[in-house]
Amino acid sequence: MKITFLGAAREVTGSSYLVEADGLRFLVDCGMFQGGRETRAKNQRDFSFDPRSIDFVILTHAHIDHSGLLPRLVAMGFGGIIHTTRATSDLLAVMLPDSAHIQEKEAEYANLDRFRKDMDRRDKKRGLPPRDIAPLYTVAQAHASLKRLNPVDYDLEIAPHPEVRCTFRDAGHILGSAIVEVWVGEGAARRKIVFSGDLGQPARPLLRDPTPIHDADYLVVESTYGNRDHKSMDATQDELVEAINDTIERKGGNVVIPAFAVGRTQDILFLLADLTRQGRIPKLTVFVDSPMATAATEITYKHMALLDDETHALMGRHGGAAYFRKLSFVEDVEESKSLDRITGGAVIISASGMCEAGRIKFHLRANLPRRESTILITGFQAAGTFGRKLVDGAKRVRLLGEDIPVRADLYTLGGLSAHADRTALLAWLGHFRSTREAYAGGDPAAAQRPFRSKPRRVFVVHGEESVANGFAADLQAQFGWDAVAPEPGFSVELI
């Protein structure tokens, strides 16, 4: 048996892992690389395998850096089933067509730009063929990939193949996110691989805590925040209160919040409602300007059973609307444009979370030059993204073809991350125990295997290179595990 790390290897995006055993081939995740021009080129290159040779896909969750290349995979010949949780399946029905729409619009804009610069005519004079830029995939191809989905409940064992068993456990990261336990082979040759997916931070709004896992032969674990801890929720709420009150009440400006449409937007709405309930901030005029966030919020309420008790109590059937002066979910493009004429008193939540695409770019263009406005960064900003430039302190930025001064105040709320921090990661990993103890009363064949107190090997992924390497070293030092941060394309035999 062999695993190859196709993405999220010493970087945060592009999660994808190829598992091969006795002629069987399957993927865990098929994510898009996110960032600057270099990462976009990664998405355009051919897969390192024949998509037609893949028997099935196991998907941990809906975020585009885990799911975003599925339409391309299907378009290039994959004809198998994509197994994932029910909530993830519902989210993908919104997110993948939206991603495809962005691909089409960006290709359209790039080709128009080429036309404006008369590049095609010059190419023709040089005897060069047309170089029209094609989208990574189309909306039609995204819809075709949705037909391959098999929605699965948490904690239900499925058999994607006669020699494979799989169970999805709640990862507490976003709605529907999963830790995946995969058993490959039969009898004494059976091996268990655990893929952590993206793990959530315990005791955070909306979702339940990540499910503890107690045993694995091989473990693939994320490390996004493996080198630091988040601010406490109390400190995060204090900073959010300061940003809101200083901007709305003292400066009279707008608060612009780039937010992931899935998970982060719903977290922010919960916190704003809760802080209003506590009397710490005034009732606000809030615009959620993202059709995908609107759809994701509706899907969230469809899956209320997956939310924690605190969320049930506060949000109820009405989504906490009573705690807002006005809560508006913006759909119409013209209404979205009108938000940029508001000079103060509004909270605008818009996607994308890393400021790379979507309506947020227009709201930033309008508000970055305003000293009375505030930009509130609430999530991880990958290297090369526009959001990362803001976090790194850029004084001027290039946005939508314009040179924009950065005069607005910038707040970063590290405590809202949907990813587990270093302490939470180590606590989750601390649940792994001896194989014999874990299998007591379980699989008789597994119970006869040699006693081990640790996974055979641990692969640290989904972290920037220095973070992943450092976290792997920490696991070696703290747990005595054989831990490594694989390089992109690294393959290893699982014996």
Structure notes:
The structure is a single chain. This protein is an alpha/beta fold and 495 residues long. It has two domains: 2-227 and 421-493, Ribonuclease Z/Hydroxyacylglutathione hydrolase-like (Metallo-beta-lactamase, Chain A, 4-Layer Sandwich), CATH 3.60.15.10; 233-416, Rossmann fold (3-Layer(aba) Sandwich), CATH 3.40.50. Helix content is 34%, strand content 21%. It has 17 helices and 22 strands. The chain has helices at residues 37-44, 64-67, 70-75, 86-116, 119-125, 139-146, 233-251, 264-277, 291-302, 309-315, 333-339, 360-367, 386-391, 422-429, 435-438, 444-447, 465-479, and strands at 2-7, 16-21, 24-30, 56-58, 81-85, 149-152, 158-161, 164-170, 178-184, 191-195, 218-222, 255-258, 285-289, 326-329, 346-350, 374-377, 396-399, 402-405, 409-412, 457-461, 483-484, 491-493. The strands form four sheets. Strands 6-5-4-3-2-1-22 form a seven-stranded mixed sheet. A seven-stranded mixed sheet has the order 7-8-9-10-11-20-21, with helices on one face. Strand 2 (16-21) and strand 3 form a beta hairpin. Helix 4 (86-116) runs antiparallel to helix 9. The chain starts with a strand and ends with a strand.
Q: Brief description of this entry?
A:
The protein is an alpha/beta fold and 495 residues long. The protein has helices at 37-44, 64-67, 70-75, 86-116, 119-125, 139-146, 233-251, 264-277, 291-302, 309-315, 333-339, 360-367, 386-391, 422-429, 435-438, 444-447, 465-479, and strands at residues 2-7, 16-21, 24-30, 56-58, 81-85, 149-152, 158-161, 164-170, 178-184, 191-195, 218-222, 255-258, 285-289, 326-329, 346-350, 374-377, 396-399, 402-405, 409-412, 457-461, 483-484, 491-493.
